[in-house]
Amino acid sequence: MVARRRKRHLTEEEEVIQFLRKEGFKEITKKDKKELWYQEHLRQLERWRKEEVGKPFSVRERKALYGSKPPATSKAKAKHHA
Fold this sequence. Notes:
Layout: H1 2-22, H2 30-33, H3 36-52, H4 59-66, H5 75-81
């Protein structure tokens, strides 16, 4: 039963990804993260976060947004979620 829910969730996620691609959206690449437009967009996000939430992004959130490589997961977490 859990597998069904997971599979259904992945299917919905894939549908959303396909819809966004059809609409002209694309994934942000490592090269894009170095571009000026991306850096300015992140500065705007940080200002919004401070105004609306009252605190800056956490270290983990900042790495996910600014980092050029995907966040690493520990082997223990990977085994636990598998």
